Give the backbone structure.
Amino acid sequence: MSNNAAIVELSQAANKYRSSIVLQAESKYIDVKSILGLFTTLVGNLSYELHVHGPDADEAKKELGEIFAKHSLNVKVVE
């Protein structure tokens, strides 16, 4: 399965927010606003954690959580 559509959608959504949006995959941390970072990370069946901190974090968590679910990506949004 190609995650290209998910990566573009995630990056575009993340860039609408001022919050820091970071995806943790095992010991790596990736800025979700970076398409390149996502391309090198969203491979395989790792489990991911999404960390969002900032003024619009709640909205960002909701939208990104929906995108992850839509693309069947195993991501836990950390509160």
Observations:
- The chain has a mean pLDDT of 89.
